[in-house]
Amino acid sequence: MQRLDSSDIGFADAFDALVNGRRESDADVTSAVAQTIKDVRAHGDATLAEMTQRFDGFDLNNAGWQIDAAQCKAAYDALQPDLRDALTLAAKRIEAYHAAQLPEDRDYRDSDNVRLGARWSAVDAAGVYVPGGRAAYPSSVLMNAIPAKVAGVERIVMVTPTPKGETNQTVMAAAYIAGVDEIWRVGGAQAIAALAYGTERILPVDVITGPGNAWVAEAKRQLYGVVGIDMVAGPSEIVVVADAQNDPAWMAADLLSQAEHDPTSQSILFTDNAAFADQVAAAVDTQIATLSTQAVARASWTDFGAIIVVDNLEAAMPLVNRLAAEHLELAVDDDRAERLFGLVRHAGSVFLGRMTPEAIGDYVAGPNHVLPTGRRARFASGLSVLDFMKRTSFLGCSPEAIRAIGPAAVALARAEGLPAHARSVEERLK
After folding, report:
1. Is 70 exceeded by the pLDDT of residue 25?
2. What pTM did the predictor assign?
3. Tally of CB atoms within 10 A around 46
4. Strand pairing partners for 177?
5. Integer Cα distance of 369 and 417 in angstroms
6. Residue from 312, 308, 313, 379 nearest 346 by CA
7. What's the confidence (pLDDT) of residue 133?
8. What distance, in Å, lies between the first and last C-alpha atoms of the chain?
9. Could you tell me the domains of the chain?
10. At residue 75, what are phi and psi to the nearest 5 degrees?
């Protein structure tokens, strides 16, 4: 863990290094992913079957390509009641939050009697990638599939690897709750390529969302333009802005909630009290030893964690904005949280007040937990219904309207050296 103090000589350079530090995988996967995409496009299901056998030890042709609705329903029915209730509560809250995001169509006439507007519509099909193995999260199924369903997507396709043929039953139950239409037992870059181009079995989709490893992320990057994507996501991150009135154990737990995701995750604390900083650091060390995820959390905290002491929390906010973190907690009194929130320009999602840990947003609060990482909150937003929709503008001119605005269009077309453009308007002005 790195300890910084804004009053120290050299702080600016040290903080610059923290901001600019690269945590994404160093693995050069670009060429390998490009070849995988090429192979899937050329050979379709044959490539998927071969790669699934090679990487997952699973024979698709003998054991089955799909998980059907009956299997998902059985998984749902077999859940412990408290877990089933938790998933159902999460789904209801996620659905309600995203329903409120639905945009409104516009249709009006301006002062020149030109009809103008825009109509929103859902894409026809969406693909959701769900990691398998250790990083199989039913909450991500809900966060990706429910906004698509709310947007009005008619066909929601989930792809997920099933190493050695094993499925995560809670993930299957989440797929049932979310209303996923198809589940294919394939993963990796090859699954992304199959969703983008289609194969003999898998029909193509229009948008692909969901988390994955470096190969999955690179496949989404390379295939953007063939399909829409949510984002190219990197390791998780959290910034906590906290005063000394907090329980150090709470803040330590919040920091570790992200550190346990991945060895390259990053957790950063800003505080205006050096003694409190010491207390949080000690609490982190104590809690790490109690976690089943301690190896991952310790690597993350040791290599990428940071505690930064500032003169006051308001002065921290420009630094927080430079980090543009995926998650930002403002762990202060509610009125001060509002003031600090007013200073936030760049963050994926903000958690207001002492009683709002980031983890509540991961599961049941309602806002999406698929968020921009790696400082991408400077220009990107979290997953929403809009990622599954597109806007079609429209306009209509009456004779009166084209007489009002047509001459200007002719003048501009002539200025650009496009006579056919000009003539298409001039003919209507005669």
Report:
1. no
2. 0.92
3. 14
4. none
5. 49
6. 379
7. 63
8. 75
9. 2-22+234-366 (3.40.50.1980), 30-105+123-229 (3.40.50.1980), 398-429 (no CATH)
10. -65, -40
Cα–Cα distance, 402 to 148 (Å, whole number): 39
Q: Can you tell me whether residue 74 is helix, strand or coil?
A: helix
* DSSP bridge pairs for 392: 119
What is the Cα–Cα distance from 262 to 267, expressed in whole angstroms?
A: 11
Quote the longest CA-to-CA distance of the chain: 83
Going across the sheet that includes 237-242, the strands are: 2-5, 306-309, 266-271, 237-242, 327-331, 349-352
pLDDT value for 135: 63
Q: What is the pLDDT of residue 394?
A: 97
Cα separation, 212 vs 129, in Å, equals 7
Output the CA–CA distances (angstroms, integers) from residue 144 to 117, 129, 130, 265, 334, in the order listed: 29, 9, 9, 21, 31
How many angstroms separate the CA atoms of 246 and 356, rounded? 12
Q: What is the pLDDT of residue 405?
A: 97
The one-character DSSP state at 289 is: T
The pair phi, psi for residue 342, each rounded to 5°, is -65, -20
Residue 135: DSSP 8-state? G
Structural contact between residues 269 and 254, judged by C-beta atoms closer than 8 angstroms:
no
Cβ–Cβ under 8 Å, residues 140 and 211: yes
Neighbouring CB atoms inside 10 A of 94's CB total 25
Yes or no: say if 129 and 157 are a contact pair by the CB < 8 Å rule: no
C-beta of residue 228 within 8 angstroms of C-beta of residue 127: no
Q: Which residues of 213-232 are buried (b: 16+ CB within 10 A; e: fewer)?
A: bbbbbbbbebbeebbbbbbb
Catalytically active residues, by annotation: 326-327
Q: Which two tokens stand for residue 152?
A: 């009005």
Instruction: Check residue 92 and give its pLDDT.
Output: 98
Q: Which helix (H) or strand (E) holds 41?
A: helix 30-43
Cβ-based neighbours of 192, under 8 Å, separated by 6 or more: 37, 127, 129, 159, 208, 212, 216, 219, 220, 223
In 3D, which of 128, 149, 132, 137 has the Cα closest to residue 192? 128
DSSP 224-268: BTTBEES----S-EEEEEE-TTS-HHHHHHHHHHHHTT-TT-EEE
Is residue 168 within 8 A of residue 132, CB to CB? The reply is: yes
Q: What are φ and ψ of residue 389, in 5° steps?
A: -135, 160
- Percent of the chain residues topping a pLDDT of 70: 98
Cα distance between residue 99 and residue 94, in whole Å: 8
- 162 in Cβ contact with 56 (< 8 Å): yes
Residue recorded with tokens 């007013």: 342
pLDDT band at 331 (very low <50, low <70, confident <90, very high): very high
